[in-house]
Amino acid sequence: MRLRIPAIGVSATVERVSVVEDGTRAVPKNEWNVGWYRGGYVPGTLGNAVMAGHLDWTNGPAVFWNLKRLKVGDTIYVTDSRKVERKFIVQRTVVYPFDQAPLDAIYGKSANANLNLITCAGKYDRALQNYDKRLVVYTTLAEG
Asked: What is the DSSP string of 20-86?
C-alpha cells in the first residue's frame, strides 16, 4: 500500500504494524513510512482506519513532519495492494494531550469510511522519550 498527501509532499510506503508487548500499537520501523494497524479497519471500508507516522527521527524531520499544515478540504490518497486508489478529504485536525486522545473516535466503529492520520506533537520529554501531545487528522472517503 501507499499513502500520498500532495499538499505536504508525502508519498510513503505503508507498513503493516500490530500491537507491541506493552499493549500499544507499533510504529513504523522506517521514518519515511507510515504504519497501518492491521488489526483495525481497512482504508475505504466502513470504520476508522488509522495510519501513524513519525514526526521526526534521530537525524531530523520524518514523514509526518508537515502533517500539521493540512487544511480542511485537502486530499489524501491510499493505493492498496491491488493498485486501487481511494481519495479521502480532510475534515478536521485536532491536537490532544498524549494520554487523553479519544481512542474510540480515532480507531473505533463508524458509519463512514474514514482514514485518521496520527503523529506526535507538542514538546518532547527526554526523560519519558515521548511527546506530550498527539496530532490527529480526521478524513472521510470522497464520494464517487
From this structure: -TTSSBP--SSTTSEEEETTSPPTTSSEEEEEEE-SEETTEE-TTTTGGG--TT-EEEEE-TT--EE
CB of 36 within 8 A of CB of 51? yes
pTM of the model: 0.92
Average pLDDT over residues 45-62: 93
Nearest partner of 68 among 129, 130, 133, judged by Cα? 133
Least confident of 77-86, 99-108, 132-141: 99-108
* pLDDT average, residue stretch 97-107: 89
Residue 69 and residue 90: Cα distance in Å, rounded? 11
Task: Tell me 107's DSSP state.
Answer: H
Amino acid at 62: A
Helix (H) or strand (E) holding 105: helix 103-107
Buried b (16+ CB within 10 A) or exposed e, 10-25: bebebbebeeeeeeeb
